[in-house]
Amino acid sequence: MKMISVKAENILSVGYDLKDYNLHIIFVSGKENIFFHVPMNVYMELIHADSIDDYFADNVFMKYPRREL
Length: 69
Description:
This protein is α+β, with helices and mostly antiparallel strands. The chain is built from 2 helices and 5 strands; from the N terminus they run ββββααβ.
């Protein structure tokens, strides 16, 4: 899985696992989370959002099960 750098205040990079539909987020703080069962369109909308931080807060965080690595 390839991670891509994004321009956001709180998120450093994101990646998407096509096989398992998991969204990987690395935060500026260094923490990494995996969000499970995220549809690909949510990933695409996230990386193309005007504000990645706002999109993440509104559409990903607390909406999908997650695990911190």
